[in-house]
Design brief:
The chain has helices spanning 15-27, 50-53, 57-64, 71-82, 103-112, 135-140, 145-161, 186-199, 208-213, 222-230, 251-259, and strands at 2-7, 32-36, 89-97, 117-121, 124-125, 128-129, 167-168, 202-206, 235-238. By secondary structure, it is of the alpha/beta class. The protein has a seven-stranded parallel beta sheet. It has a two-stranded antiparallel ribbon with strand order 5-6. It is globular, with a radius of gyration of 17 Å. Bound molecules: zinc ion (2 copies).
Length: 260
């Protein structure tokens, strides 16, 4: 089983901390682990978040406390980890906050920095996060829901078409607070799956929403998963763990419906 998205976020970039994730993966029967962290951990990406900081409030406070590491520090950890003889396959990458307006910036950074894999995720619409504690007040009740979803899909399609990423993060977490557009989202997910096939991008079935935010879906909404499966899309199971003990969470429960 694979857990294709676990964050080092809450700890230091040390071998000891990363090995806690590997140990928990083994405990949960995971034999292929993709370790990553958000781009907002790394100084090199700070410039890309300036428009998000300008929103102020909780979002500014959150970002003001980050960018505490450098990519060189991460590369040093990856080098040390790759020298170890680990019991399972472990690879290293990033979860990149994708924004169309910063595509040239991202292309430049990733022409110079290479990773085993890159997850691209749309986390914000109009520079406002859609799934955070401030999102209802700052985004969902300020803008029309149809507009938010339309922008979200535009960004998601551009993410895949950029050919920068090997995987798209949590493709339906936009559902988190229960706001639904007036139009059917399934034709959009159908287009997403077709683009992902064309550009060889994996689609996540991400259990993070379920155990981290208590959303009733254990990963993708069943109808979205069906659209992906009907397209024969390349799927990947992920926990989005932000702590070692969460590695592999509920992967066993979604494995058969995702990969079967
Ligand atoms: Zn994410
Ligand atoms: Zn994540």
């Amino acid at each position: 089983m694979i857990d294709g998205h676990v964050h080092l976020e809450r700890g230091p970039l040390t071998k000891e901390y990363a090995l806690e994730f590997v140990k928990e993966a083994v405990n949960k029967g995971i034999d292929d682990l993709q370790i990553l962290d958000h781009t907002h951990r790394f100084k090199e990406f700070e410039e890309m978040y300036e428009p998000m900081k300008k929103i102020g409030g909780g979002q500014k406070k959150w970002l003001d406390n980050d960018f505490r590491s450098t990519l060189d520090e991460y590369y040093e950890l990856i080098r040390e980890m790759k020298q170890l003889d680990l019991p399972i396959k472990v690879t290293y990458g990033l979860e990149v906050c994708f924004q169309i307006s910063y595509l040239p910036f991202l292309r430049d950074i990733f022409s110079r920095n290479h990773f085993d894999f890159l997850v691209g995720s749309v986390h914000a619409v109009n520079n406002i996060a859609y799934d955070s504690s401030w999102s209802v007040e700052e985004l969902w009740t300020k803008y029309p829901v149809d507009y938010i979803y339309t922008k979200y899909f535009e960004e998601s399609f551009a993410l895949i078409e950029s050919d920068l990423f090997t995987q798209i993060g949590h493709p339906d977490t936009i559902k988190m607070f229960g706001y639904r557009p007036s139009f059917d989202v399934l034709p959009y997910y159908d287009r997403l799956a077709k683009l992902a096939n064309k550009h060889h991008v994996k689609l996540e079935n991400n259990t993070g929403c379920y155990y981290r935010y208590h959303h009733p879906d254990k990963g993708l909404a069943p109808d979205v998963l069906k659209v992906f499966k009907d397209n024969g899309a390349d799927m990947i199971t992920v926990s989005d763990a932000h702590r070692p003990e969460d590695v592999g969470s509920y992967i066993k429960d979604i494995w058969d419906i995702t990969m079967g």
